[in-house]
Specification:
This protein is an alpha+beta fold. The chain has nine helices and 20 strands. It has two domains: 223 residues, 3-Layer(aba) Sandwich (Rossmann fold); 110 residues, Beta Barrel (OB fold (Dihydrolipoamide Acetyltransferase, E2P)). The strands form four sheets. A six-stranded mixed β-sheet has the order 6-7-8-3-9-10, with helices on both faces. A five-stranded antiparallel β-sheet has the order 13-12-11-14-20. The chain has a five-stranded antiparallel β-sheet with strand order 15-19-16-17-18, with no helix packed on it. The two termini are 39 Å apart.
Length: 358
């Protein structure tokens, strides 16, 4: 397997700047996820690593060697596409065996390799079927098997689970992490689904408009976002952002509310800020010294819990609560805030403020 390093990738398509200085360092054997919204440059990054796109500037290194000028074949990287890209007239066995036949491997070698990877993916019963006789999840497993059978330097996966239904996506997330542990290979995985990123990755790189916003473990990206944009993008219930400023020992909201100044912040008085609060770090059920006054705006029952939308002045604060919580829109209530888990961002730059030890 291989380390994959890209430095200062720039790529434009006409007047559209797809990549603007992307630098990533993927350790050998890691499950590395590139996360971002549509148009962030995720797929272009992957295609540049694979050698399918010519760079305007920058370099790609594999195991420390400059591979920027190498052909896709010379790079020896396997790519799994969103569309599966199976040969429709060939059986699963023939699809999986295709890369080995291209290398002129013997029939015995091909048979043993296909049998091994089919067992790893639990698709032995599919080997005689053609793609039209398979479900989407089964086709995705066959496409994955075709990549795995080659034993390449690294695996590049371009949103491979997008076309699956929710239940299959959950199952395949588990399967992919199991396969990664079994192989010990280097996976570079592209997705716009933060649940996939946070549940599967060793490291996550968050992209926006062709630029890397943050690289870190899933816990680091979620708990310590580098800026307001990452904070708002990462999290299945988006972080709420409330305009405020520091005045002495208090945070004073633009809507007139006050909270004790978090003990960890070093923000100076009067500086325009945004207070970031995740839905699990605030509560309408408990009491505390730090509370925000508001009114019930709406309820979103989700079965195991209810997301409560609370209107604080003109801003909406989202709160995770028990499924039994009820109320009437317009009803006054208080929201308890865990300030030790709050975030502060500079209102102008969007950057996370430097913190003292929490």
């Amino acid at each position: 397997m291989a380390t994959v390093t890209v430095e200062g990738l720039h790529k434009s398509f006409g007047s559209v700047q797809a990549l603007n200085g992307v630098t990533l360092d993927v350790p050998d054997g890691s499950f590395f996820v590139v996360l971002g919204p549509s148009g962030a440059g995720k797929t272009t990054t992957l295609r540049c690593i694979a050698g399918l796109e010519k760079l305007d500037a920058g370099s790609v290194h594999l195991d420390g060697r400059d591979a920027t000028g190498d052909t896709p074949a010379d790079r020896d990287l396997a790519m799994v596409f969103q569309s599966y890209a199976l040969y429709p007239r060939r059986t699963a066995y023939e699809n999986i065996a295709a890369p080995l036949r291209a290398r002129r491997a013997s029939s015995d070698e091909i048979g043993a390799a296909v049998e091994k990877v089919a067992a790893l993916l639990h698709i032995e019963r599919l080997l005689k079927r053609r793609p039209a006789q398979m479900s989407g999840g089964e086709q995705q497993r066959v496409a994955l098997a075709r990549a795995l059978v080659r034993r390449p330097r690294a695996f590049l996966m371009d949103e491979p689970l997008t076309n699956l239904d929710l239940k299959l996506r959950v199952e395949m997330r588990t399967e992919l992490t199991r396969i990664h542990r079994s192989l010990g290979g280097t996976f570079v995985y592209v997705t716009n689904d933060q649940v996939e990123a946070l549940s599967m990755a060793d490291q996550v790189a968050v992209l926006k408009d062709g630029q890397v916003q943050q690289v870190g473990t899933p816990a680091e990206v979620y708990e310590r976002p580098a800026n307001q944009w990452v904070a708002g993008f990462v999290g299945s219930t988006r972080m709420s952002l409330l305009a405020c400023r520091v005045e002495g020992d208090q945070l004073v909201g633009a809507e007139g509310w006050t909270l004790p100044r978090p003990r960890w912040t070093m923000a100076e008085n009067g500086r325009p800020l945004l207070l970031g609060l995740r839905a699990e770090d605030v509560s309408v059920e408990r009491r505390g010294d730090a509370t925000l006054p508001g009114e019930l705006y709406g309820l979103e029952p989700l079965g195991d819990r209810t997301v409560v939308d609370v209107k604080v002045g003109k801003e909406i604060l989202r709160v995770k609560a028990r499924s039994t919580v009820t109320g009437t829109p317009g009803e006054r209530l208080s929201v308890a805030v865990d300030l030790d888990r709050a975030h502060l961002f500079d209102a102008e730059s969007g950057l996370t403020l430097a913190e003292s030890s929490r």
